[in-house]
Known about the structure:
The chain is mostly helical. It is built from 4 helices and no strands.
Amino acid sequence: IYNVIVIFDAVGLGVFTVIATYKCILYDVPFIGILFISVLTGVGGGIIRDMMVNEVPLVFRSEIYALASLLGTICFYAIYGLLDTNLNIYLNILIIFAIRMISVYLKLNVPAIKIKDV
């Protein structure tokens, strides 16, 4: 069942990130604002889910989660206007999904800072 949850979580991450990015572009939000809003929207659901089951949220661990959302946001913004909007939406949902699933499958992580107890 863990694999099913990871798959649906990756789809949700992609969908919410891309929808937030598209809405920000429509409202003429500056690029840095698009990055913050889209990543926060994308990872927010996962944070709430993990808090409800009393786990440390994925975004606070070393897994590639927020990075997938960030890369998808940048790709969407870069391609916006060059491709049909619907194609851009689906393409970037797939990009985010692929980044997340590849990182889970290959057990790729971002470096984590180890803090020693004083």
